[in-house]
Design a protein that fits this description.
The structure is a single chain. A six-stranded mixed beta sheet has the order 5-6-7-3-8-9, with helices on both faces. It has a six-stranded mixed beta sheet with strand order 14-15-16-12-17-18, with helices on both faces. With 631 residues, the protein is of the alpha/beta class. 35% of the residues are buried. The longest helix is centred in the last third of the chain and has 43 residues, at 543-585. The chain has helices at residues 40-48, 80-86, 89-104, 107-119, 125-135, 152-165, 182-193, 206-212, 231-243, 249-269, 273-289, 350-358, 393-398, 406-414, 432-445, 462-474, 486-492, 511-518, 543-585, 596-629; strands at residues 2-11, 14-24, 29-33, 55-59, 66-68, 170-174, 198-202, 215-220, 223-228, 311-321, 325-335, 339-343, 365-370, 376-379, 450-454, 478-482, 495-500, 503-507. Helices cover 45% and strands 18% of the residues. It has four domains: 1-65 and 169-244, P-loop containing nucleotide triphosphate hydrolases (Rossmann fold, 3-Layer(aba) Sandwich); 72-167, no CATH class; 311-518, P-loop containing nucleotide triphosphate hydrolases (Rossmann fold); 563-629.
C-alpha cells in the first residue's frame, strides 16, 4: 500500500497539488489522467523520490521495488541488448560476482552466486531481454547496435524495455505509447495485462488505458479524485456528475445532437459490416459520455471546404521505398469520402507512403495522378520539430494562405486552447503537447480536402485526443491515417489497408480482427510463413471438405445478408426523408404564422422517423453480430 498523506506539490511558483491524501493499494492498476501541465509527471517524480514535497509525506512499504521509464537516454557504445540487461541490476551484480569467484578460485562463492542466479531465473534473462526488444519493434540485427546509433524515438523504446526488464513491485510508465506503432502498443498492452505488481500509468491512449487499468486518479483543481474502473467507466461516472450541473446542460445537449447526426449519417451509408458495427457501438458510447467532456478547453473544427472534389488521388502500380523497394503494386483510389487507416509493423512503409502522397518524397516506380483541386494537409510525426521556433502562434497562422484579421486568428487559436498572451509568446517556450496542437492548428487552417495524418495524437493529452476525434468525425474531406490510437481509428476511419512483407492490401476485418491476427505473429512481427510440409496431415482439409464448408456458410449467411440489405435500404430511405425535413425546417418561411400547422406536422414526422431509425439501427447491429459469429 502506498499512502499520500496531506501532500503539497509545486513546480516553480505553481501549486500542482494542495492538501492531498490518497491510498494506492497493492496490485492496483491505476491510470493517472489530467491535462498537459497539471502535474502528472511531477507526481511520478515525487513518488520516485527525485523531487521533494512542499508539505506532507509519501509512505511506501519497506523493500518496495520501483521501476520507471527514464525520460532521456544519452548516446552510448553499449549495445541495445546490454542496455536493457543493465536494468536488471541484481543480474549484472551476480555476473560480476561469478567472474570474480572464477578468477579467485573461490568455489563456495561461485556456488552461492550460481544458486542466486537460478533463483532469479538468470539463465533465461538474455532471452527475456530479446523478447522485450522484439515486442517493441526492434529487429534481431539491431540488438547489437550501439545505443548512440538509434534516434530519439527508438531510445524511448529502449528506456521502456529497460523499465520492463527491471524487477519491480511498482511500475510507473509515463506515456509509454508515445513513440510506439499500433503493433508494439498491442504487444505492450498484453505484457502489462500479465504483470503481477502495482501499475501507475500516464497515457493519452484511451483504448490502451481501458485494457490495462482498473482504477483512475484524475487531477482536478489542485486535488486528486479517485474513480473505480477503467477510463470508460471514469467518463461515465464523470458524465453523471457533470450532468447535475445545470449550467452545462445546454452545452451537453448540443454535443449529443452532433454525435446523433454523425451516427445516422454513417449508418445510412455503411457497407462494410465489421467496421460499421465497431463504429456504431463506439459512437453510441461517445454519445453517452459526451457530458464528461463539456468543460474541455478544446473546441475546434476543420474549416468547411470551399470546392469539394469527388476524385482526389489515383495510385497505379506504385512502388515505394528508398534504395530498394519496400512495397510495390499499390493500387488505390482516394475520393472525397475516403477514410483509410494504414496498418502494418514498424518499417513496413506506412509513413513512407504518406510522405510520397504529400510530395515530400518521390516514388520509385508507378504513377500518382492528382486532382487539380487536391489540397493536402500533412501532419508528420516530426512536424512539431519543424515549426518555426522563433515565431508566435499568431505569426504561424498569418504566414498561411488566406486573409484573416488578428481577432479571427485569435478566435481560431482559442479552440486549440491558445488564449490571451499565449498567442503572442514564441513557440520555443512551448511544451511538446502545445507544439503538437499548434502543428494541428496549422494543418487545419489550410482547408485541406485530403488529410494525411502520421501519429497525430503523439504528445496530446486525453482531452485534446477527444477533441481531435470529434473534429475528424465532422471533417468533410478525405483522410489517410497512421495511428496507434485505436479509439481515434475506430471513430474516424471506414476502411483499413495493411502493409505486410511488401504487400499492400485491404484488411477486411475491424481492429479486433487485426489484434487477433497480430497474436499469431512473432513479437517482432516478421514471422516467416510456415512451410506447408511442417503442417501435420490431420490439420489439412481436403479441397472437397473446404468447398462443402464454404457452401454451408453461404447457406447460413444468405437469410442474414437478405435482412441486412433490407434494413440498410430502410435506413437510407428514412435518412433521405429526415434530410428533406431538416431542409424544410431550415427555411425561415416555415416559421411564419400561416405555416404553423405545417411546421407542427413536420416536427411530429421528424420525431417519429428518428424513433423508427433508432429501432432499425439496433436491429441492424444485431444482424451484424450474428454475421460476425460465423466469421
Amino acid at each position: 500500500m502506498i499512502s499520500l498523506n496531506n501532500i503539497m506539490l509545486m513546480r516553480g511558483n505553481q501549486i500542482l497539488l494542495r492538501h492531498v491524501s490518497l491510498v494506492i493499494h497493492k496490485g492496483q492498476r491505476t491510470g493517472i489522467i489530467g491535462r498537459n501541465g497539471c502535474g502528472k509527471t511531477s507526481l511520478f517524480r515525487a513518488l520516485s523520490g527525485d523531487i521533494p514535497l512542499e508539505e506532507g509525506e509519501i509512505e511506501m512499504p519497506n523493500g518496495l521495488r520501483r521501476s520507471s521509464m527514464a525520460q532521456e537516454t544519452p548516446g552510448s557504445d553499449r549495445s541495445a541488448l546490454d542496455f536493457v540487461l543493465d536494468a536488471h541490476v541484481e543480474f549484472r551484480q551476480l555476473e560480476d560476482a561469478i567472474k570474480q569467484a572464477e578468477i579467485s578460485g573461490n568455489d563456495l562463492a561461485l556456488a552461492e552466486s550460481f544458486g542466486k542466479l537460478e533463483e532469479i531465473d538468470g539463465y533465461d534473462i538474455s532471452h527475456r531481454a530479446e523478447r522485450l526488444l522484439s515486442g517493441l519493434g526492434f529487429a534481431v540485427d539491431e540488438f547489437t547496435r550501439p545505443v548512440s546509433n538509434f534516434s530519439g524515438g527508438w531510445r524511448v523504446r529502449l528506456n521502456l524495455a529497460a523499465a520492463l526488464m527491471c524487477p519491480s513491485d511498482l511500475l510507473m510508465l509515463d506515456e509509454p505509447t508515445n513513440h510506439l506503432d499500433l503493433e508494439a502498443t498491442v504487444w505492450l498492452e498484453q505484457w502489462l495485462q500479465s504483470y503481477q505488481g502495482t501499475i501507475l500509468l500516464i497515457s493519452h491512449d484511451r483504448t490502451f488505458l481501458d485494457s490495462v487499468i482498473n482504477n483512475v486518479i484524475s487531477f482536478d483543481n489542485g486535488g486528486l479524485d479517485s474513480y473505480k474502473g477503467n477510463y470508460s467507466s471514469y467518463e461515465r461516472q464523470r458524465a453523471e456528475r457533470m450532468a447535475l450541473q445545470q449550467a452545462l446542460f445546454e452545452k451537453q445537449q448540443r454535443r449529443k445532437s452532433e454525435i446523433q447526426n454523425f451516427v445516422r449519417r454513417f449508418s445510412a451509408k455503411a457497407t462494410k459490416a465489421k467496421q460499421a458495427q465497431s463504429r456504431l457501438k463506439e459512437l453510441h458510447r461517445m454519445e453517452e459520455i459526451a457530458p464528461a467532456h463539456v468543460d474541455s478547453p478544446f473546441r475546434f473544427k476543420f474549416p468547411e471546404l470551399d470546392d469539394p472534389s469527388s476524385y482526389l488521388i489515383q495510385m497505379d502500380s506504385l512502388t515505394i521505398g528508398f534504395d530498394k523497394p519496400l512495397v510495390d503494386k499499390i493500387e488505390l483510389s482516394v475520393r472525397s469520402e475516403s477514410r483509410f487507416g494504414l496498418l502494418g509493423f514498424n518499417g513496413s512503409g506506412k509513413s513512407t507512403l504518406l510522405k510520397i502522397l504529400s510530395g515530400q518524397m518521390q516514388q520509385l516506380d508507378g504513377d500518382i495522378i492528382r486532382s487539380k483541386k487536391l489540397k493536402i494537409g500533412y501532419f508528420a510525426q516530426h512536424q512539431v520539430d519543424e515549426l518555426d521556433q522563433q515565431a508566435t502562434p499568431i505569426e504561424l497562422i498569418q504566414k498561411e494562405e488566406g486573409y484573416a484579421t488578428e481577432q479571427q486568428i485569435r478566435d481560431y487559436l482559442g479552440g486549440f486552447d491558445f488564449r490571451g498572451t499565449r498567442v503572442s509568446e514564441t513557440i520555443k517556450n512551448f511544451s511538446g503537447g502545445e507544439k503538437a496542437r499548434l502543428a494541428l492548428a496549422k494543418v487545419a487552417w489550410q482547408k485541406p480536402n485530403l488529410l494525411l495524418l502520421d501519429e497525430p495524437t503523439n504528445h496530446l493529452d486525453l482531452e485534446m485526443c477527444h477533441a481531435l476525434t470529434v473534429a475528424l468525425q465532422q471533417y468533410q474531406g478525405a483522410m489517410v491515417v497512421v495511428s496507434h490510437d485505436r479509439h481515434l481509428l475506430v471513430n474516424t476511419v471506414d476502411e483499413f489497408y495493411s502493409i505486410h512483407k511488401g504487400v499492400f492490401a485491404e484488411f477486411k476485418g475491424d481492429l479486433k480482427d487485426y489484434e487477433k491476427w497480430l497474436s499469431t505473429q512473432t513479437f517482432s512481427g516478421f514471422e516467416e510463413d510456415v512451410p506447408e510440409e511442417t503442417v501435420q496431415p490431420k490439420q489439412k482439409l481436403a479441397k472437397k471438405e473446404k468447398r462443402q464448408q464454404a457452401a454451408d456458410l453461404r447457406e447460413k449467411l444468405a437469410p442474414l445478408s437478405k435482412q441486412e440489405k433490407r434494413l440498410e435500404a430502410q435506413i437510407e430511405k428514412i435518412q433521405a426523408s429526415l434530410n428533406k425535413i431538416e431542409s424544410s425546417l431550415a427555411d425561415e418561411g416555415m416559421y411564419l404564422d400561416e405555416n404553423k400547422n405545417k411546421l407542427n406536422k413536420l416536427i411530429q414526422e421528424q420525431g417519429a422517423l428518428k424513433s423508427k431509425l433508432v429501432s432499425i439501427e439496433e436491429e441492424w447491429l444485431e444482424i451484424q453480430e450474428e454475421i460476425a459469429n460465423y466469421s
